[in-house]
Amino acid sequence: MLIRKLSILAILLAAAAMASPAAAQKREFSFAYDQPKQSGYGIGAAMFDKKLQELSKGTMSINQYPSAQLGTEAQTMQKVQTGDIDFVILSTANASTAQPESGVFSLHFIFRDEAHAIKVLGDAKVIAAMRDLYAAKIKGAHMIALGTQGLRHMYGKKAIEKVADIKGIKMRVQATVTEDTLFPAYGAQVVHMPFGEVYTALQTGVVDMAENGINNYLVNKHYEPAPVLSLTEHEANHSALFVSDKVWSSLTDEQKKWVQTAADEVSQKEPEAAFKLEHEALAKVEKMGVKVVKNVDKTGFAKISKPIQDKLASDLGPHAVKVLALVRGVQ
Length: 331
Description:
By secondary structure, the protein is an alpha/beta fold. The chain has helices spanning 2-18, 21-25, 40-56, 73-82, 114-121, 124-135, 177-186, 198-204, 214-219, 245-248, 253-288, 299-316, 318-329, and strands at residues 27-32, 60-65, 87-91, 141-156, 170-172, 189-191, 209-212, 228-244, 291-293. The longest helix has 36 residues, at 253-288.
């Protein structure tokens, strides 16, 4: 009888705990991206989740949906705007499907090196300008952080040592005005497709080459159909973190501060960690036997891209012009 009473008491106490305000307020948010967890996106998501749980004392956390489980980057950009996804991190290039001026971050050779890219992404003025850039066009969601997956390089079955080497090459690129202008200027033919189709396209010859960060090249096994990696460093592989306005409007002022502080953690710490991941990935692919071309003559590419930078930014719009100036000004 005593045991039965104790059991009933335990059930009642458990029910009371479940009904408590703290338990009722506990929230888990969807957080989507199109790369595996072992990527710059995954690093950013983990940083965000850790800080958010710390600040909220465990009442707020995220559920990660990596590897395009909830759609391509263009699709998740739409879903975060409609409130079907709570948070999404995606490339600034693919965010240009919703705001073309986002393509300014894809301009070639505007990031001088890794150190410059890291400083730019943590710069308060750049972050504010990119936030304004997206707010001018995107409805239903807003940017809360910047991140990166390193710099982009070209890969295929042949080495790229100079700009003349990509003449006539069918190159898979992200669908932005920036890339559609610059790659043809080098002599390449551009091909658009979702990232998940690139492996097969390289394998079947639908495209001759693709370009991306080293870790993405590694974890997605693109080295199998494309065993030559040329370190062109032509473009940044930067990203932006968005929150749905549906979620944002449901938060208290204190909760909004927690979310933004967790996002700030991403802007300040994810870039350096992502570049470290790139260095580790390079060592791995070299050990696996991938031919890595390190002596790429970038002068031809830079000479062609330089006069195009300002024109493209101007064509994209005033926010792009402002961002470009700020990027160049970061020392």
